[in-house]
Amino acid sequence: MIEKITFVVIGKNEATNLPRCFRSILKVNDNIIFVDSDSDDDSISIAKKFNIKKIIKVKANYGTPALSRSVGSKEVETEFIQFLDGDMTIDESWIPLALKKLEENEDIAAVHGYKKVFTKNEREFFILADSKDWQPDYMQGAYLIKTDVYNKAGGLDSRFPGEEERDLYVRIRSLGFEVWYLHHIMASHYDFKRKNTDIKHLLFSDRAAIIWIPLVKAVKARNFKSYLFVYRRLLVPLLLDISTILSVCMGLVRFILFAISLQTLELIYVFLIKRRGYFITWKAGFINILKAAKLYRRKIVFSKENF
After folding, report:
1. Pair 10, 117 in one domain
2. Distance between CA atoms of 23 and 12, rounded to whole angstroms?
3. Residue 123 CB neighbours (<10 A)
4. How far apart are CA 270 and CA 19, in angstroms?
5. By the 8 A CB rule, do 117 and 189 touch?
6. What is the pLDDT of residues 253-297, one digit of tens each?
7. What residue numbers bound the domain in which 169 lies?
8. Helix, strand, coil shares, percent, the chain, to 5
9. pTM of full prediction above 0.70
10. Alpha-carbon distance 192 to 29, whole Å?
């Protein structure tokens, strides 16, 4: 049993997945904090059946995964936190390897690995992975982190309906610490929920607007170097999109052709770095820039109940 780690598990209506999740963790230890996001299924009852040490139900005016993780992290008393979603399972081989990396490297604050992703059933999956150990341009929702660094960095920003991990990553970098992707399986994700992938959601959602807030926060805190490092791959599409907008505003045919060339270049770039979603990220951000200002001023009000 590895007692120096606490698992913070979050979920909303994950009753069908939680038994699988809890069983995988109990092979490592029983230091589990489960934060339920006001589910209307049997999630709380299932957590009780597994004798989870701390069960917290959170109700909020704007519920986010970041809020649930933040609430759970405040209850952690161990040296490390492993964040995990309720529809995931932890791989037994991950914890010893990840823990060794953190304990042997004072400069590394957090590590995450790759996942098996099941979207149709419990047999068919694909691997969501990079190809080597490196300091990546992202963090996932699941990762192992040193508790003291997490707290010093200020934890997760509960207002964020997305992009919260990269925002934390910027602040971790500003403290002089690193985040590493380890090319090793970390978890399996049983992602059976129907995704909202229509164009309206992609272009006009809170998640589309949120891309601006880490930039604003980095400017205010003067974390320029840290922001540039974390967002280094996303800044290329930003520059190309700005150049495209300026070219279109010129209105002349030659500038329109130049804009098309810029977008073609951007499309090639995102495919080369295997980040196809980056092609739409800033475009959606520009469309929702006023919404981003509202999100920045958002106040999260929540209550919690312990079971």
Report:
1. yes
2. 18
3. 6
4. 38
5. yes
6. 667 788 889 999 999 999 999 999 999 999 999 999 999 988 899
7. 5-197
8. 45, 20, 35
9. yes
10. 27
